[in-house]
Amino acid sequence: MVVGDLFHSAENKELDLFRKWRDDLPDLNIKLVKGNHDILKAQWYVIAGINVYRDGLNINRFSFTHDNLNYSNNELLEPGKAKYKISGHIHPGIRVSGTGKQSLCFPCFYFGKEFAVLPAFSRFTGTALIDCKEGDRVFALVNNSIVEVG
Prior knowledge:
Layout: H1 13-24, E1 30-33, H2 42-47, E2 50-53, E3 57-59, E4 62-64, E5 84-87, E6 92-97, E7 103-111, E8 115-117, E9 128-129, E10 137-142, E11 145-149
Parallel strand pairs: 1-2, 4-5, 5-8, 6-9
Antiparallel strand pairs: 3-4, 6-7, 7-8, 7-10, 10-11
């Protein structure tokens, strides 16, 4: 499951490598909720064996969308059927401060009461610092490890 921005450009050499990887794993079911940077032609996704969902995807009590704040599909907001929303558009980050004035910022997984935001896994993207509330859970990506931040 990818909640958008699988690719950030038009067709290029890296996409050939991706297609080779897909050919090696044809049984892997990839679902892509299309993001604002997913600009390839529809036929490319078909050839690559990727199932594309333009307006989000509901699976049981979960609603997958690229941008948690922008719903164009009314099914995502069915009355009486609140769904836990999972998105990825904002590329969440958490700032961790040391005992001195030093601090570091890391991409993170953010889990709130009503929605979650997945991190960007690209070295090209920045992060949007999140404001944690009581009860939220945050897991930072640090040196190829996942660390819960309290």
